[in-house]
């Protein structure tokens, strides 16, 4: 039995001849990771890397949101090297997933005996404020769903799309 192909209909006949332009930022997705040695001296490197990745992306992350993301990464990475096996010749990995208006950062570590929980630091204590900072500034945060470590999210109002 012979079949007859449908006649070709150009897209312009279906949708008109006007052009639809979608800005590159609307299609931008950032998904990347980097692993660092589990040493305190690598925390500033993780901070710089996150700042570089967000700044080089086409996500138009507002300066205050980017600065907050970098601060929280520093706190999460410090937590990994001070309170988990990452700091005992291990590693930690920073995972970034972002779309316009929403950022998730995960700091994966080598594990600890307990889940991370903010503590009440005394006025003169030198430690104990990192998770409280994350809890205070992040939209959401908590233990990673898979593996060890924590995640946090930040959001912002993305620039409007002009179509």
How many distinct beta strands?
5
* Shape label: globular
| Annotated CATH homologous superfamily | Histidine kinase-like ATPase, C-terminal domain
CATH architecture grouping: 2-Layer Sandwich
**CATH structural fold name:** Heat Shock Protein 90
Distance between the termini: 46 Å
Biggest pleated-sheet summary = 5 strands, antiparallel
- List unreliable stretches of 5+ residues: 8-16
SSE order, as H and E? HEHHEEHEE
Q: Given the structure, what is the number of helices?
A: 4
Description:
By secondary structure, the protein is an alpha+beta fold. The protein has a single domain (31-155), classed as Histidine kinase-like ATPase, C-terminal domain (Heat Shock Protein 90). The protein has four helices and five strands; from the N terminus they run αβααββαββ. It has helices at 11-15, 43-56, 63-83, 130-137; strands at residues 30-37, 91-99, 102-108, 140-143, 149-155. A hairpin with a 2-residue loop joins strand 2 (91-99) and strand 3. Helix 2 (43-56) packs antiparallel against helix 3 and helix 3 runs antiparallel to helix 4. The longest helix has 21 residues, at 63-83. The protein is globular, with a radius of gyration of 22 Å. The chain starts with 10 loop residues before the first helix and ends in an 8-residue tail after the last strand.
């Amino acid at each position: 039995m012979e079949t007859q192909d449908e006649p070709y209909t150009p897209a312009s006949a279906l949708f008109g001849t006007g052009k639809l332009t979608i800005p590159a930022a609307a299609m931008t997705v950032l998904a990347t990771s980097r692993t660092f040695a589990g040493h305190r001296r690598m925390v500033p490197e993780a901070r710089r890397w996150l700042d570089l990745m967000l700044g080089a992306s086409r996500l138009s992350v507002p300066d205050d949101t980017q600065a907050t993301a970098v601060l929280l990464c520093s706190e999460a990475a410090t937590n990994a090297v001070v309170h988990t096996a990452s700091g005992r010749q291990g590693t930690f990995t920073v995972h970034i997933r972002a779309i316009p208006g929403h950022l998730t950062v995960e700091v994966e570590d080598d594990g600890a005996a307990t889940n991370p929980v903010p503590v009440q630091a005394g006025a003169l204590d030198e430690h104990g404020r990192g998770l409280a900072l994350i809890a205070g500034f992040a939209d959401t945060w908590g233990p990673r769903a898979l593996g060890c470590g924590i995640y946090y999210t930040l959001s912002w109002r993305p620039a409007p799309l002009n179509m």
